[in-house]
Amino acid sequence: MTNFTDLIDLASVRVGGQALWASDEFFAGKENLLQPGRGVFIPDKYTENGKWMDGWESRRKRVPGHDSCLIRLGLPGRIRGFDIDTNHFLGNYPEHASVDAVCLDGDPSAEDLQKADWTCLLPISRLEGGSQNLFAIENDQRWTHLRLNIFPDGGVARFRVHGEVVPDWSKVQEVDGLADLAAVENGGVSLLANDMFFSHRNNLIMPGRAANMGDGWETKRKRGPGNDWVIIRLGAPGHVRRVEVDTNHFKGNYPESCSIEGCSLGDVPDDFLASRSLSWQELLPRTKLKASHQHDFSSELTGAGPFTHVRLNIFPDGGISRLRLFGVRA
Question: Which of 1, 29, 39, 139 is deepest in the core (most CB within 10 A)?
Answer without folding.
Answer: 39
